[in-house]
Amino acid sequence: MSEDPTRYEGGQPTTPYLDAVVARGLRGSTRFHVPGHKGGEGADPGLVGAIGERALLLDLSQGQEGIDIGPSPTPFESAERLAAEFHGAQRTFFLTNGASQGNHALCLALAPHGTKVAVQRNAHASVIDGLVLSGGTPVWVAPEYDEEMGMAHGVTPAALEGVLDANPEISTVFVVSPTYYGSCADVPALAAVAHSHGAALVVDQSWGAHFGAHPGVPASAIASGADAVLTSTHKTVGSLTQSAMLHVAPGDRIDLGRVARCVRIVRSTSASCLLNASLDAARRQLAVHGEALLDRTLTAASALRERIDAIPGCRVVGDFSHGANGAMEWDPLRISIDVRGTGRTGFELAQDLRELHDTHVELKTQATLVLVLGIAQPVEQMERFSLDLAGVVRRGEPSSTAVGAIVRPPEVLQQGTSVTPREAFLGVGEAVPVDLAVGRVSCETIAGYPPGIPALLPGEVITDELVGYLRAILESGAQLHGASDPEFTSIVVMAGDGS
Length: 499
Ligand SMILES: Cc1ncc(COP(=O)(O)O)c(C=O)c1O
Known about the structure:
This protein is α+β, with helices and mostly antiparallel strands. It has helices at residues 16-25, 45-51, 53-57, 75-87, 98-110, 125-134, 157-166, 187-196, 233-236, 256-265, 273-309, 346-357, 379-395, 421-426, 464-475; strands at residues 91-95, 116-120, 137-141, 145-146, 151-152, 172-176, 183-184, 200-204, 228-231, 244-248, 315-317, 329-330, 334-338, 363-364, 368-372, 429-433, 446-449, 454-456, 479-481, 490-494.
């Protein structure tokens, strides 16, 4: 018997929720409840053929006795508790609408209407959407910026301190670590700064669900002093797409009941049991075999980095020494390749890799290719990749667009909103020609990749400098994410904003 009576007996090697779903789903029960496909017999044969009978048999609705309702702890509660135990959390919430759902819920819980929160400027779009839902006002914390590569990284403790000193009423800080490029902030120092100002620290660790599972990967944000942490389990660990977890650290900086209510508000009442079961299974795999799987993957990844560095014109990005660009560590499952020396753009190389080798990268930009490895990335694929990339580089003709200059984002990106993102996004908007939009309040979010910093957010005043920056980004071959007019000839601004 375990000491904690609520602890699921058997511990981390067990999967109580997955087991309960399998036991009930496969035993041939008569189903006079949703979903309408009735375990597959009522489904279109094309779907049955595509995803298999078992997936449909296991696709049970919520509210099943002995799975997610009944005597506590139910298998669902036990599964969340095992995840909390493994991640060192006071409480873990399974999310079936991705880490996006977690950001929405955390904004609703911790950044309500009338409050100011500190937000890393290159936070994920779901944080901005969360603020639209909640009505909170962001005060931006500028990320470190790598001029050479045009990449935005994390925020430094000094940058956070400056914002919190100037805004003592802030009670929550939202940061991202690791970033899309794999650089990790100094989370212990950020936590110390936030806490010394009486604020809670939320770390969006979506890209680092594997953190803490091997000595060769960065420590988890929970173990580093964060108060709430998101892990997008589907990104690097083996759960199904759209499944993620929200962890609340031990302590009382976060109102657990309030977070629970807010998670519920942004969750379907018919959350997918397949997604939840996949989270239970992914937690087991990470807890029981994560270190061994990562050991193999990290060894192969390190060899892959060396082989990529040996390809003429290619260089793996990431100064693995502490402190460069504010990054204390780098995620070894991320391989960002600077391809400028090849005379070709990342877009062109990605297209050749796709068309010639059926190989697909996570992100391509003018200057880079970015690979994301899973904790159990097949080693043979990593061995093959460097040969494929070398061949693609060797065979391609240098292109005229490859030498485009990196466009530096203007300082104006730190200006702050003139009205809340909620007012601007939900208010009445009108599309106006871009040249006439200067001085008006944007209803849109527009981000250029690279650098991935949202250039314009709902509630911000559009300036000449910003328009020039967005045009330069487009001319450099990058894309404007989120713009209602991808050609950037018009932009939606608040109607009647007095300008
Ligand atoms: C930093 C960050 N947070 C949150 C998300 C949203 O994650 P999900 O796709 O699981 O909703 C992403 C997605 O890429 C992300 O990059």
